[in-house]
Amino acid sequence: MAAVPSQHLRALKVAVVLSAVGLVGKWSAYVLTNSVAIFSDALESLIHIAAIGVAWYGMQVSFRPPDVEHPFGHAKAAYFSAGLEGGLIILAAVLIGVSAVDKLISGVALRRLDVGLGMTGLVAVLNAVLGRWLLREGRRLHSPILHAHGKHILTDVVTTVGTIAGLSAAWATGWWVLDPILALVVALNIVREGARLLWGSVHGLMDRSNPELESRARQALEEFCREHGIRYHRLRLREAGAQVYIDVHLQFRDGTPIEQAHGLATAAEQAIAQALPVHADIVTHLEGEEHAADHDEPKPPEQLQELRR
């Protein structure tokens, strides 16, 4: 098994430790207050820690080197991990909804809200710092796992702030029924975030292109082609975890020696790789100008829909 980069491991370790601290704080606040809204917040944190364990394994798998059965590597395991986390988030929302409905039926009895809300507020501040850091690390390292955790934690912060505001209003007005109602609102918000993670995972597994990285690759290739008097077409890029796969057709003047064309193709691959902030596996197809029409360019979705009519 290939070693997971130390920066990825460091980010996950920090997430595990701080998430565990936050869970202890929220669960303590729930025990003190008997609030189903705070319980919903604590349950989401518990699901998140379980998801980190899944992500840890997913990251280990995603960095395995290619083998006979997986010649393109195992990077897509990262998308399975992010999708599973989205599913766990939705499961947490269902459990929260059941608890909230039970409280609406059986009645609400809250206590010690001053201490409980104070503890919950401190956890919100901690998670806000952690979530923003994980998002930044996820973008820098191009890790869908870290990015998914960052989004999850920041969603947790929003729900925690909403919980504090709602319980404060209940405390001030005596409308204790706001507690389970607030928990239901939290559950709906969690469902939305879980659905986003699942949708992002599906896009990753379906080899959706990255417009920003593709633009960088095209710019580098166009500059190289202008400099060396060649052309290109059928550039395709797909993401797979923390790396991308690119293939492109290079067109040379008829009669160009194969040695010269191969040397220029290798130089073009290097130019593209240097222009990208992630590791790129690049394959070039060499052809003469007269064969340019032998391969159709990929069509955008709107053109494909028009062809199907």
* Rg, Cα atoms, Å: 25 Å
Biggest sheet character? 3 strands, mixed
- The CATH homologous superfamily of the largest domain is called Cation efflux protein transmembrane domain
The unreliable regions are none
Structural domain tally: 2
Order of helices and strands: HHHHHHHEEHEH
Determine the mean pLDDT: 81
Give me the count of strands.
3
Portion in helices: 55-70%
What is the third-level CATH name, the topology of the largest domain? Alpha-lytic protease prodomain-like
Q: Tell me the number of helical segments per DSSP (H or I, 4 or more residues long).
A: 9
The N- and C-terminal alpha carbons lie at a distance of 48 Å
**Beta-strand fraction estimate:** 5-15%
Classify the secondary structure makeup into a structural class. Answer: mainly alpha
Q: If classified by CATH, what would the architecture of the largest domain be?
A: Up-down Bundle
List keywords for this structure.
Alpha-lytic protease prodomain-like; 309 residues; single chain; 9 helices; 3 strands; mainly alpha; Alpha-Beta Plaits
Commentary on this structure:
The chain is mostly helical and about 300 residues long. It has 2 domains: about 5-205, Up-down Bundle (Alpha-lytic protease prodomain-like); about 210-309, Cation efflux protein, cytoplasmic domain (Alpha-Beta Plaits), CATH 3.30.70.1350. Helix content is about 70%, strand content about 10%. The chain contains 9 helices and 3 strands; from the N terminus they run αααααααββαβα. It has helices at about 5-35, 35-60, 75-105, 115-140, 145-175, 180-205, 210-230, 260-275, 300-309; strands at about 230-240, 245-250, 280-290. A 3-stranded mixed sheet has the order 1-2-3, covered by helices on one side. The longest helix has 30 residues, at about 75-105. The chain is elongated, with a radius of gyration of 25 Å. The chain starts with 5 loop residues before the first helix and ends with a helix. The model has no long low-confidence stretch (mean pLDDT about 80).
